[in-house]
Amino acid sequence: MAALITLRKILSPKSNTVKTSLFFTIFFTVIFVNLIDKLIKCELETFDTTVTSWVQSSINPELTKLMKIITSLGSPKTILTGVAILGIIMIFKKQKWKTMFLILFVGIGGLINLLLKWIFKRQRPTTYRLIEERGYSFPSGHSMVSLIFYGMLVCLFVSNEDGLLKTTSSLLIFSLVMLIGISRIYLGVHYPSDVLAGFTAGGILLTIGFTIYKVFMRMKKRNTIPKSIAGIFIKIVTLFNPFHSISNRYS
C-alpha cells in the first residue's frame, strides 16, 4: 500500500518530474516522427545536402585527425569500455542501482538503434567519405547511444551536485555529444538527418530512463519498493486500474 501511495505522489500530474519528463518526451518524439515522415517522403535531401556541404567545407588533414578522435568517443568499443569501468567502480562503491540503470538503458538504446536501422534500411552517404563504416544509416548509432551514455552519466552522477558543477558538467557533456554527431557528418558516414534522428531517439530513451531511475530511488529512499519484479508490476497495474479505484470508493 505504501508503494502505491508513493507512486501516486511521484506520478501525479502536478509532479515536476512528470511535467519535465512529458515535455522532453513529447518534444523529442515530435521531431523524431517528423524526420521519419520526411524520410519516407524523400524530403530530406535539401536539408542533408546543405548541412553536409557546410560541415565538410572545412575539411583539412589536422581537423580530420581530430574528428576521428572525437568520433571514437562515441564508438561501441568506447561506450562498452566506459560502462564496464563505471560498473565495476559503482559496485565497489555499493551503488549497484546506478550501474544497473546505466547498463540497462545503454543496452536498450543499442538494441533499439539496430532495430530502427533494420526497419528503415537507409544507405549511408557515398560521397566525400573519409572513413569506412558498415551497416545502415538511419538513425546514427554513435549519436543515439552517445547521448544516452554520456547523458546518463550526468543524470546519475552529477544531477544532485551543486549548481556550478552540474551546469559545467552538463555543458561539457552536451558539447561532446554534439561534436560526436558533427564528426559523423564531417567524416561522411552519416547524413545530418541521421544524426538528428539519433539525438532525438536517444533523448526519448534518456528522459524515460532517468525518470524511471528517479521514481525508483524515491521509492527506495522511502522503503516502499516491492521485493520482486512481479510485485513492482502488480503495484503499477493496480495504480492505473480504474476498477481498483472504484472498488475502494464503495468498500
Overview of the molecule:
This protein has 251 residues and is mainly α. Helix content is 76%, strand content 0%. It contains 11 helices and no strands. It has helices at 2-10, 16-40, 45-55, 61-72, 76-92, 96-120, 141-157, 163-186, 192-221, 229-239, 242-250. The radius of gyration is 21 Å and the shape is globular. The two termini are 16 Å apart. The model is unreliable at 1-8 and 233-251 (pLDDT under 50).
List its salient traits.
251 residues, mainly alpha
Task: Please outline the helices and strands.
Layout: H1 2-10, H2 16-40, H3 45-55, H4 61-72, H5 76-92, H6 96-120, H7 141-157, H8 163-186, H9 192-221, H10 229-239, H11 242-250
Radius of gyration: 21 Å
Which consecutive residue ranges, at least 5 long each, have pLDDT under 50?
A: 1-8, 233-251
Provide a count of the helices.
11
What is the residue-mean pLDDT, rounded to a whole number? 81
Strand content: under 5%
- Class inferred from helices and paired strands: mainly alpha
What proportion of the residues is helical, as a percent range?
A: over 70%
